[in-house]
């Protein structure tokens, strides 16, 4: 498989910058949802407290996943600058452009990813 073209790499770089902006917006919007739950126990029922705590836990989990993906996007943007982007970390073959369009932070080609999950 031939290397990614300059136009393809630029398309993916712009895609990652867009994803980065969206993830940062999500983190900012999610900040209040992850705050410590403080409810007046005399005016709020037990079920409402449990529900609020459960929603907080889900927001914390979502925030963690968002931070993790943002970190991967930022690292991948660095590999674009180093001209090392688009190659599988396991077999050193070019990762398909179509795969990178779906998940631009992919570090493995589809075959190596399938073998790891297999």
TrEMBL record:
A molecular function (GO) term: zinc ion binding
The organism's place on the tree of life at top rank: Bacteria
Pfam families according to UniProt: zf-dskA_traR
Zn-finger region bounds: dksA C4-type: 88-112
Keywords: Metal-binding, Zinc, Zinc-finger
Domain Zinc finger DksA/TraR C4-type: start-end pairs: 84-117
PANTHER family in the record: GENERAL STRESS PROTEIN 16O, RNA POLYMERASE-BINDING TRANSCRIPTION FACTOR DKSA-RELATED
Name this polypeptide is given: Molecular chaperone DnaK
Lineage: Bacteria, Pseudomonadati, Pseudomonadota, Gammaproteobacteria, SAR86 cluster
């Amino acid at each position: 498989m031939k290397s990614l073209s300059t136009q393809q790499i630029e398309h993916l770089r712009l895609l990652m910058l867009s994803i980065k902006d969206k993830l940062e917006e999500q983190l900012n919007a999610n900040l209040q949802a992850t705050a410590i739950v403080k409810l007046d126990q005399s005016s709020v029922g037990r079920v409402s407290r449990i529900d609020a705590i459960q929603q907080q836990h889900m927001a914390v989990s979502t925030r963690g996943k968002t931070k993790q993906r943002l970190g991967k996007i930022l690292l991948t943007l660095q590999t674009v600058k180093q001209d090392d982007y688009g190659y599988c970390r396991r077999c050193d073959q070019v990762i398909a452009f179509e795969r990178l369009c779906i998940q631009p932070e992919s570090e493995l080609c589809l075959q190596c990813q399938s073998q790891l999950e297999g």
